[in-house]
Write a structure and sequence with these properties.
two-stranded antiparallel sheet, globular, 24% strand, 3 helices
Length: 139
């Protein structure tokens, strides 16, 4: 968690998926302070989108951040994705959905509340740090 779903009408080359997944992870973690191991990116390709839309990014994120942080996250994510993918703001749709941390598990453990990662014993003991490369799912 968070889980970002990137939906496109055409397939993206593997190298672009990796670039986009890393950008999403870097923006999310850079703004929220969440550990990289929490970020997951899924790609849904060859999907129907609204007219004129080339990409839709849906972020399922932990609830508990300020409205200002959520707005900053959504705006900066959109800006950086448009820049990387060479899209206009009208060609990209974004949505964020917040859910309580206690509803979410990572590696069989309940996630801490946003900003409380330093209090999480299982995370401080190295959970999920054994891999740095983000994996992604494509359908």
């Amino acid at each position: 968690m968070p889980l970002y779903t990137v939906t496109t009408p055409k397939s993206l080359p593997n190298s672009r998926r990796v670039e986009l997944a890393n950008l999403i992870m870097n923006v999310h973690c850079g703004l929220t302070g969440a550990p990289e191991t929490f970020v997951n990116v899924m790609f849904w390709e060859n999907a129907t989108l609204n007219d004129g839309v080339a990409m839709h990014v849906y972020g399922g994120i932990r609830k508990g951040r300020t409205a200002e942080m959520r707005e900053t996250l959504e705006k900066e994510m959109a800006r950086r994705i448009c820049q990387l993918m060479i899209l206009t703001d009208k060609e990209l749709e974004t949505d964020m959905f917040e859910m309580p941390a206690q509803w979410i598990m990572e590696g069989g453990e309940i996630l801490p509340e946003p900003g409380e990662e330093h209090l999480c014993e299982w995370l401080q003991n190295g959970h999920g740090t054994e891999h740095n490369q983000k994996s992604f799912i494509s359908s």
